[in-house]
Amino acid sequence: MKKRLLLLGATLLSLSSQAQLANVDEISAQRMEDQNIDTVAWIRNANIYLGGNQGMLHNWAAGGELASLTVNGVFNGNIVRYYNRHIWTNTLDANYGLFYAYSNSFQPRKTDDRLDYTSKYGYRLGGHNANFYISGLLNAKTQFSKGYNYDLPNWRDSSTSGFLSPLYVLVSPGIEYRKGSMLSVFVSPAAMRMTFVSKEYTSRSDVGAFGVPYNKTLRMELGAYMSARFQKDLSKTITYRGRLDLYSNYLAKNTYDASGTLIKKDNPGNIDILVDNFIAFKFFKYFSANFGLTAIYDNDVPFVPAKDAMGKQTQDPLRGLGWWQIKQSFSLSFNYKF
């Protein structure tokens, strides 16, 4: 009887200790939202959003696509390692969307495609309340599958991009201002950026592709870089995530062909810009309405108006935005957080 009581007591004590530990971890996680604290812990967080839309028409007087299906998914995850004054953060953003329609025999067409990974290590300067870190950053951006210009009648015959083409890799030391996991501003005066592209794309034009010269597979750049990130639960049902990246290439210069004709204007003042915004409105625990808006300016990706089979420019309601790359999305989805 005594042994059973001792065993029961030890079990309850163990459960109590685990509950206290879980509570401590929860409190630490809450404090880490907007504070830099000395602790030893792994903190992980991930959100998955899965959405879709289906429609079908028959003898519909107003007309429209006879049958269509849109599916999309968004993943945002991060793992953070805290070790006293050391911090190591890893963030992965992945988006993918497809559209199927009866009018093109349900051939899938991409509506979204993004793969973006960032790893950053920092050492906090000063004491427990200090917000500045000496940091090193690695960022890699690419896409999952081939991209096409769907305005062309033979679009299946020639892709415009592919997996790891382009692949942007940025490596840089710098200084980071950080307020817990809520706000981060990283600045580097010497960031090396590499662009990898298959010859399949750079051999099609005298100017190459994505800034990589004709028939080459790699371009090296050295410049100044800034990356600011902000994420916060604005309420129990609203989550916001924002990002701003700026890059200036010190080595940028005009490009000329063999005859001396100017092909492309460029200089360090042509700053590459990425602005990313995502808002999720949660309801019924596992469902949400999501709004995303991404804007990119890259001097190496000019705006070339699309043309139809007759050589005439196709209608583009956003033509006035010029070289800006714009992606906007809205979806109702099932989401899971862990």
Question: What is the topological layout?
Answer:
Elements: H1 2-31, E1 40-56, E2 67-83, E3 86-101, E4 109-124, E5 132-142, E6 167-179, E7 183-196, H2 199-202, E8 218-233, E9 238-249, E10 255-256, E11 262-264, E12 272-283, E13 287-297, E14 325-337
Antiparallel strand pairs: 1-2, 1-14, 2-3, 3-4, 4-5, 5-6, 6-7, 7-8, 8-9, 9-12, 10-11, 12-13, 13-14
The CATH class of the largest domain is identified as Mainly Beta
> What's the total number of strands?
14
Cα-based radius of gyration, to the nearest Å: 25 Å
Helix content: 10-25%
Keywords:
338 residues; mainly beta; Outer membrane phospholipase (ompla), Chain C; 12-stranded antiparallel beta barrel; 2 helices; 14 strands; disordered N terminus
Provide a descriptive summary of the structure in words.
The chain has two domains: 1-31; 39-337, Outer membrane phospholipase (ompla), Chain C (Beta Barrel), CATH 2.40.230. The strands form two sheets. The protein has a twelve-stranded antiparallel beta barrel. A two-stranded antiparallel sheet has the order 10-11. With 338 residues, it is mainly beta. The chain is flat. It is 10% helix and 51% strand. Strand 6 (167-179) and strand 7 (183-196) form a beta hairpin.
Question: Care to give the gist of this entry?
Answer:
It is built from two helices and 14 strands; from the N terminus they run H-E-E-E-E-E-E-E-H-E-E-E-E-E-E-E. It has 338 residues and is mostly beta strands.
